[in-house]
Write a structure and sequence with these properties.
Strand content: 15-25%
Number of domains: 2
Protein name: Glyceraldehyde-3-phosphate dehydrogenase
Shape: globular
CATH class of the largest domain: Alpha Beta
Strand order of the largest sheet: 4-3-2-1-5-6-8-7
CATH architecture of the largest domain: 2-Layer Sandwich
CATH topology of the largest domain: Dihydrodipicolinate Reductase, domain 2
Radius of gyration: 20 Å
Bound molecules: NADP nicotinamide-adenine-dinucleotide phosphate
Order of helices and strands: EHHEHEHEHEHEEEHEEHEEHEHEEEHH
InterPro entries: NAD(P)-bd_dom_sf
Helix content: 25-40%
Number of helices: 12
Organism: Eiseniibacteriota bacterium
Number of strands: 16
C-alpha cells in the first residue's frame, strides 16, 4: 500500500452506486475517508443532474480516457481518468453488472497498491462473499483483497437463518431452510424489465433451487457451515421492495415469543406490524438515507407462526438494497481500518430501525 491518502473509488452510478456514493459522502469524516471518486461510463445529458448532484456532495468524477472530451463538452468536469482513479484508490467498490470483467481487465494490474476490491450481488466468484454482521470473522486481511457483497435478498435470507437458527453457532440446529423470494420486477430507478403479471422462476440449480440459497450457502461456508437450504423465486408486477416467505425447521423446540425475542435482539433486524411493501417502502422513503433502510430485513410480526414446535414460518421484506449498501460501506471501512471499522460504522445506525 503506497498511498497515504484514503481514497475510495466507486465504479457505476446506478441503483447501487448512486446511494452508496451518497452514504460515503455523508459519513466520509466518520469513516475516515479522505477523498471519494466515481466512474461514469456513459456521458449522457439525462444523467448530468445525477453526476452534478454527486459532485456537489464532494465526490470527484472519473471516466475512461477516451470519454473525457465528451463529458467536458456536456459540462461535467473530470477529475481523473479511470486509470488514474484506480491508481489513487485505496479501495475500489464496483457497482456494475460487470465486476468480474472489470476484475480481469482493470483491477488485476492494481493489486499491488490497492487494499481491496468489492463487487456486488450478480458477480458470483469475484471474491469472498460477505454480509455485514454475518461473516465478519471470516474476513482475512490481505488474503481477501477481493470481496463480493451478496445480493439484497441473500442478506435477507441469511440474517433470518443467522438470527433464528445459529444463535449458538451450531449449524446442526438448522434442519432445513426453505425460501420463496417474491421479487419486484424492476427498481423505481429503472424503466425496463417490468412484468405485467406474476412470473414464476425456474429452479436452475439442482441442489439449491435458485441462486439465493446457493449464495447464502457460500456465505455461511466461509464460516465452515454447510447448511441445508433451498430457494424458489418469482417476479411480481411491482416496483416496491422484494418480499420473502420462509420456513426454518430447527432441531431445538421454539415458541413464538422466543422467535420474536431473538429477532428483536438483533439490531440488524427491523420488526413491523405492517404487512405490505408499500407502507414499509414509504417509511424507508421518508426516514431512510436516500430512501434506504439499512436494516438487513424487515420481519412482518403478524405473519410469524410456529408449527410443530420446531418450524418457524413467516414473511419478511427486503429493505430495498440498503443491506447491500451497508455491507459495501463496511467492507470499505474494514479495508481501511481493520482494527476499528465497527466503531467507525456506528453513525450509520441512525438508519437501522428496531421498529417500522
Ligand atoms: N438493483 C438492486 O436492487 C440491487 C440490489 C443489490 C445488489 N445489486 C447489484 O448491484 C450491481 C449493480 O446493479 P444496479 O442495479 O445498481 O445496476 P444499474 O442500475 O443498471 O447500474 C449499473 C451502473 O454500472 C455502470 N456500468 C455498466 N456497465 C459497466 C461497465 N462495463 N464498466 C463500468 N461501468 C458500467 C452503468 O454506467 P452508465 O450509467 O454510465 O451506463 C451504471 O452506472 C449488480 O451486481 C447487482 O446485482 C443490485
Amino acid at each position: 500500500m503506497a498511498q497515504n491518502a484514503r481514497h475510495v473509488h466507486v465504479v457505476g452510478t446506478g441503483t447501487i452506486g448512486e446511494p452508496l456514493l451518497g452514504l460515503l459522502c455523508t459519513f466520509r469524516k466518520e469513516l475516515g475517508i479522505d477523498t471519494i471518486s466515481f466512474n461514469k461510463k456513459q456521458a449522457l445529458t439525462s444523467d448530468r443532474p445525477k453526476v452534478r448532484a454527486l459532485m456537489r456532495r464532494g465526490a470527484l468524477l472519473a471516466a475512461d480516457k477516451e470519454m473525457i472530451p465528451k463529458f467536458e463538452e456536456l459540462g461535467m468536469k473530470i477529475a481523473f481518468d479511470f486509470e488514474e482513479a484506480l491508481e489513487r484508490a485505496s479501495v475500489v467498490i464496483d457497482c456494475t453488472p460487470a465486476g468480474n470483467t472489470n476484475k480481469t481487465q482493470n483491477y488485476a494490474r492494481h493489486e499491488k497498491k490497492t487494499l481491496g476490491f468489492v463487487a456486488q450481488g450478480s458477480e458470483f466468484g469475484f471474491g469472498k462473499p460477505y454480509a455485514r454482521g454475518i461473516n465478519d470473522e471470516a474476513l482475512v486481511r490481505v488474503e481477501d483483497q477481493y470481496t463480493q457483497v451478496v445480493s439484497c435478498n441473500t442478506h435477507n435470507l441469511a440474517v433470518v437463518i443467522d438470527t433464528l437458527a445459529l444463535q449458538d453457532k451450531d449449524p446442526g440446529n438448522l434442519v432445513e431452510g426453505r425460501f420463496v423470494l417474491i421479487r419486484r420486477s424492476s427498481d423505481i430507478s429503472q424503466d425496463g424489465s417490468f412484468v405485467p403479471a406474476p412470473a414464476a422462476g425456474k429452479h436452475d440449480d439442482a441442489r439449491f433451487g435458485t441462486h439465493h440459497a446457493r449464495d447464502a450457502w457460500h456465505l455461511f461456508k466461509t464460516l465452515g457451515y454447510e447448511l441445508p437450504l433451498f430457494s424458489s423465486a418469482m417476479k411480481v408486477n411491482t416496483q416496491y421492495m422484494h418480499s420473502m416467505w420462509f420456513s426454518i425447521r430447527l432441531r431445538e423446540k421454539i415458541t413464538l415469543p422466543q422467535v420474536i425475542g431473538r429477532l428483536r435482539e438483533n439490531q440488524r433486524v427491523a420488526l413491523t406490524e405492517k404487512r405490505s411493501a408499500n407502507t414499509i417502502f414509504s417509511f424507508g422513503r421518508d426516514q431512510g438515507h436516500f430512501g434506504r433502510l439499512l436494516s438487513q430485513t424487515v420481519v412482518s410480526v403478524p405473519t410469524l407462526h410456529v408449527r410443530d414446535e420446531h418450524e418457524v414460518v413467516g414473511f419478511t421484506f427486503t429493505p430495498q438494497d440498503g443491506n447491500s449498501l451497508l455491507s459495501s460501506v463496511a467492507l470499505a471501512a474494514w479495508y481501511l481500518y481493520p482494527e476499528d471499522y465497527v466503531e467507525r460504522l456506528q453513525p450509520l445506525k441512525a438508519f437501522f430501525f428496531e421498529e417500522i
